[in-house]
Amino acid sequence: MAQPWTVVDKYPTPEGDLELRQRGPKDFLILVGGRVLMSSTAFRSELAVADLACKPLAGRPKPRVLIGGLGMGYTLRAALDALPADAEVTVAELNERVVTWCEGPLTGLTDDALHDPRTRLHVGDVAALIAQSKGQWDAIVLDLYEGPHEASQRPDDAFWSKPALVRTLAALRPGGIFTVWAEDFDPPFVKRLQANGFAVQVHHPGKGGRRHTVYVAIPLRN
């Protein structure tokens, strides 16, 4: 019989309770409103969204990377592993409770990535941070719990609308890279990226099982 899940911590949010559950030393789930957001046993697309942004930067001096969404810390860990010793990685997380989990029970999953000397933590809205940035980042990685999908096609969406993509483009340095995690493929999002100055590649990491989508967007400007 499988070991039952226990609730490690719970925090109310407008979308429902944000929960951390555990049933083994390294077997965790993060849920919101009963919906699983992350599992410590299935995170290949979270690694891919960081690798596809950061591996091309390995030879660049002092690269600066912005990650939106901390989650269990896998994306942050993958970025750090791909980047040189002089890199700086800012990870923006809206919910302080998630930060507490990554500094506590989830620490062992990522070799304490939050306390790597290259990591900078920003507790707040990554969309606002992008809007304040001008030519600042070699890569922007968005690994949010919801990527672009049909309901996010509003003209004022904070991340996936035309104005949001224009802000992201402006925040990148020349030669920068923008990667996005999504649960499913969203063709209108690809069209918006292409219409707003990006060349786009679409990846579905892994083989077999549920395969999420990772978008790699490269600015067309010089």
Give me the number of helical elements: 6
Q: Please indicate the percent range of residues in DSSP E strands (runs of 2 or more).
A: 25-35%
Oligomer: single chain
The fourth-level CATH homologous superfamily of the largest domain is Vaccinia Virus protein VP39
Output the CATH topology of the largest domain: Rossmann fold
Count of separate structural domains: 2
Q: Which of globular, elongated, flat, extended, rod-shaped describes the shape?
A: globular
Low-confidence stretches: none
**Helix and strand succession?**
EEEEHEHEHEHEHEHEE
CATH class of the largest domain: Alpha Beta
Query: What structural class results from the helix and strand content?
Result: alpha/beta
List the strand order in the largest sheet: 7-6-5-8-9-11-10
Largest sheet: 7 strands, mixed
- Helix proportion of residues, in percent? 10-25%
Polypeptide structure, described:
The longest helix has 11 residues, at 44-54. A hairpin with a 2-residue loop joins strand 1 and strand 2 (16-24). The protein is globular, with a radius of gyration of 17 Å. With 222 residues, the protein is an alpha/beta fold. It has two domains: 1-41; 42-219, 3-Layer(aba) Sandwich (Rossmann fold). 24% of the residues lie in helices and 33% in strands.
Based on the model shown, name its key terms.
single chain; seven-stranded mixed β-sheet; alpha/beta; Rossmann fold; 222 residues; four-stranded antiparallel β-sheet; 6 helices; 33% strand
Helices and strands in order:
Elements: E1 6-13, E2 16-24, E3 27-32, E4 35-39, H1 44-54, E5 64-68, H2 74-82, E6 88-93, H3 96-103, E7 119-123, H4 126-132, E8 137-142, H5 162-171, E9 172-182, H6 187-195, E10 198-203, E11 213-219
Parallel strand pairs: 5-6, 5-8, 6-7, 8-9
Antiparallel strand pairs: 1-2, 2-3, 3-4, 9-11, 10-11
Helix pairs in contact: 1-2, 4-5
